């Protein structure tokens, strides 16, 4: 492609409203343009990368026997009524009427549509398992579209749906998809983690999110420095790895702590460490007061509390409720001598506290030298806290590190959520009718493109991995007004194309500085620069990823390029 006729308008200035690096770079380098908030056009460079991602996705989907379909974006509201989501999906679902006043939605996802397709045609276990996928435009009227392609209102998704006769079949489809997703994101050159999104141990359905590690990410993930373990911070189980201090138990004493309420104040005033304090918080779990204890240096994880109590709703007690139930201010509550109707539960670490400190359920008073079991009882010890950085990994390998993540993919075991409500039945081996067991799997294709840029760039521009680069080579003629340079440029351009390289040829009559800046900004991994030594048949080859440059004679170029290709990411 000749750059002189190529539609890749670069911008010198960073657009003011673009916060994400990927958003800035994709706009500046001419890959995308915004049409309205959250809605973008892909220009030729962007479209090329998009197609490469789609090709990788297709290869991996086809590789596990998944079949490509294409469903409409425009979906009749009747289907969403059947599943119940017409009323529950909320304002993210874009709705409209046709000229006959029939209501439609623009597909935010396709569970309803695919279930309606399959239920009418797949009637026997003999057809199962079956996996269908599509790469298609999705619409979600996001409350805060932002960060360019990372959160759009119109975006490209690969969505797949599996159909199985039994749970084992679903497990199998899920695992296949999980592995295919790992392949997709590895081939895109991404540093990612498959994150357990709803812990199986807590009885949730299996679901993993594929998270690209990047500071702009909206989720915090906890992953291991020594294994593949990764989980959403809320979900990560904490491994019991505490020990009791080997000191004699002291007698419990009450001490005056005027206006000393927070853990920080207590540690300073009583000269103890936070890990010696017992932090007590009163929660209301479905109308039942529950005192939850954690170590002073730990934070209570309300999701874990809610799960162990099997509650519908839990809320921190208000100041007023606390005073009513415990007869004391929030800053001074503790587990000793509390009313019978209050349940007391504690995080595992509390059990190991020796001669600790806790509130005395009396204004301006704390107990010191408190020892669990001797001085207070708890109903049970459980994992009730947030994992922290430096904790041992739950699988025993390595330590926990936190990172921000961008969700690029999501695999989810639906079970019979849609097949039941939409009546998708099949006849099993014994001629009995049952609901098809489904899974749903999504990849944000356009979000993945931005996530790659988020991870792979430097101060000069994008650093495309070889698998996704819009062109293989950027051939740059420094000064096309010089005959020897333009003649060599034309010759090499033809030669390289003949050798099956995909080449962007900068034949523009621009200043050299502009060309170099643009080339670095666009980020094609290999640049071939035709300059002053064109008459000697010598060009410069630059590795955009490392910045390394070498002078190469034209006769050696073919060999040099094939060597270099193996070096780049
Ligand atoms: P998020 O929590 O980021 O809103 P989601 O849970 O709504 O994501 P899913 O419904 O699981 O996402 O959709 C599948 C995939 O589609 C996501 O993993 C993500 O990569 C992509 N995706 C979702 N919403 C958007 C969006 N607004 N813009 C771009 N990609 C998106
Ligand atoms: Mg969402």
Topology of this structure?
Blueprint: H1 21-28, E1 32-36, E2 39-42, H2 44-63, E3 67-68, E4 74-76, H3 77-83, H4 85-88, E5 94-97, E6 103-106, H5 111-121, E7 130-139, E8 154-164, H6 167-187, E9 192-196, E10 207-213, E11 219-224, E12 230-232, E13 253-256, H7 263-270, E14 278-285, E15 288-295, H8 302-308, E16 314-316, H9 319-326, E17 343-347, E18 356-359, E19 365-370, E20 380-382, E21 400-415, H10 417-421, E22 425-427, E23 433-435, E24 437-444, H11 445-455, E25 457-458, E26 461-462, E27 473-477, H12 483-498, E28 503-506, H13 512-522, E29 526-530, E30 538-543, E31 549-553, H14 557-567
Parallel strand pairs: 3-7, 15-17, 17-20, 27-28, 27-29
Antiparallel strand pairs: 1-2, 4-6, 5-6, 7-8, 8-24, 9-10, 10-21, 11-12, 11-21, 13-19, 14-15, 14-16, 18-19, 21-24, 22-23, 25-26, 29-30, 30-31
Helix pairs in contact: 1-11, 2-6, 2-11
Bound molecules: adenosine-5'-triphosphate and magnesium ion.
Task: Give an account of the 3D structure.
With 569 residues, this protein is of the alpha+beta class. It has 3 domains: 287 residues, Bira Bifunctional Protein, Domain 2 (BirA Bifunctional Protein, domain 2, 2-Layer Sandwich), CATH 3.30.930.10; 130 residues, Alpha-Beta Complex (YbaK protein), CATH 3.90.960.10; 97 residues, Rossmann fold (3-Layer(aba) Sandwich), CATH 3.40.50.800. 26% of the residues lie in helices and 29% in strands. The chain is built from 14 helices and 31 strands. α2 runs antiparallel to α6. The radius of gyration is 30 Å and the shape is globular. The protein starts with 20 loop residues before the first helix and ends with a helix. About 1% of the residues have low confidence. Bound molecules: adenosine-5'-triphosphate (ATP) and magnesium ion (MG). Adenosine-5'-triphosphate binds next to β8, β21, β24 and α11. Adenosine-5'-triphosphate (ATP) binds next to β8, β21, β24 and α11.
